[in-house]
Amino acid sequence: MCVKGLYVLTVLSGLAASGVLQVSGIRIYTSGDMEAVNGTDARLRCTFHSSSPINPSAVTISWTFRPLGPGREESVFHYQQKPYPPVEGIFRKRILWAGDVMGRDASIIIREVKFSYNGTYICQVKNPPDVHGQVGEIRLRVVTTASFSELLLLALAIGGGIAAIVILLLIIVSCRRYRQRRERQLEGNEEAPRKERKDPTACHHSCAVPLYLSETSIEIDSSDGTISKPSTKDLISSEDEGLSSDDDNGSNSDLGGRV
Hints:
This protein is of the alpha+beta class. Among the domains are: about 20-145, Immunoglobulin-like, CATH 2.60.40; about 145-190. The protein has helices at about 1-20, 150-190, 230-259, and strands at about 25-30, 30-35, 40-45, 45-50, 60-65, 75-80, 85, 95, 110, 120-125, 135-145, 220, 225-230. The strands form 4 sheets. Strands 2-11-10-5-6-7 form a 6-stranded mixed beta sheet, with no helix packed on it. The model is unreliable at about 1-10, about 10-25, about 210-220 and about 245-259 (pLDDT under 50).
């Protein structure tokens, strides 16, 4: 008997080593624990990994629900080539297919969760010949308001997005200002040699006007110290006297020459 048992074990080991006998298994990944606010939609994430190629016509996905309190398990969703949402029960018209078989995603969405949905959701996937393996479980807790951790994560996400937008705007404004300043400097450097500084008091020789100063006498009144200019009549009489004296001198010189 011992020899026969040893012989059978040796044969099975050889078949397994040669690949004729294969032990397959499928691995399923879920989020574990999650919370959902009453009246909102909850996405139950479930992904899987199979050692066999994905055959979309042979893959089957099943979701079941086990309540927290006493009660029986209830079918939530079934997929085989196409989704089959429940037609009766507490999940009727509340389940949406959100997965992708070729993408190894078996997720579903529960619309408008209620407090009666508190419990454990079980995800099972089969991909023949890979039909054995673990199942995935999600423990859902329906709450009135989001917990502090979820609110904090939401606030951080919103704040991070706003901060990123503000930083991007500051970078854009700074670049524009630098570009404008650079353009102004270049324009100033180009116009500087072209401009000539002119003295407003100087005059070009082409537009110069000769000035003639006439000899005029200025009279000072000793009584009050005022300065008075000679009248035009006095100037004319003085000029006439000068001319007459020149004529007399000329006449005398002519007479002297004749004598």
